[in-house]
Fold this protein.
Amino acid sequence: MRMSELSSTTDTPVPTLKFYLREGLLHAGERTSPNQAQYDDTHVDRVRLVRALLEVGGLSVAKATTVVAALNSDMPLSSVFGVAQRAVSIPASIASDEGDADAAPTAGATLIADLCERRGWRVHANNPGLALAARVLDTYEALGLDGITAAVLEPCAEAAQLVAGGDLEAVASAAPDPAEMTRVVAVGTVLGDSLLAGLRRIAQEAESFRRFPLPEGETPPAPLTAAAIATQLEDC
């Protein structure tokens, strides 16, 4: 197919496709003349993947490029996990592997180290989740919200363990195809964060109605329908 057909098939403007090509997000087509190239189903799949990473996963172009490069590489699954984890909403100062080796442990770092020990979680010290979680707990403390830590740390850890189990089950279901397993790791990590965030927001509102009844006279939400959710999707 020509680029115009690729654009129509993926509902992606031609200038956007050219941008993807320039940024290395989309592999080149088969050149048929100096100004023409042919594209195939692999390009359709890649465009849809890139749009998912950018529009649903919320990645920057630079981070999406890093994830796509991991998909095109022969790196082990554990390394692909690391690439995807660093791409998802982790500040650059935390995502970096560099740090002060002599820095004194913070309260948050101690709590996370203890949590990992209790749960038998064995991970490399440069796992970005460690620093991110510790930074959150330290921020709670700095804001005088230590009570949040006591209330949510264990439930969040339990939920994270369940989600991680589902993540790895999805990877195992793609075996023994290494390319498909790599794709599941990269895409599942990025989009899984968005899924978890969405479900958490739904559950928070539902739980708030259960625990804190509405004032008298206020109308509770109407039963949800797929059509109502679709309307919200159009506004996104």
About this structure: Strands lie at 30-33, 36-38. The mean pLDDT is 91. The chain has eleven helices and two strands. The first helix runs from residue 3 to 10.
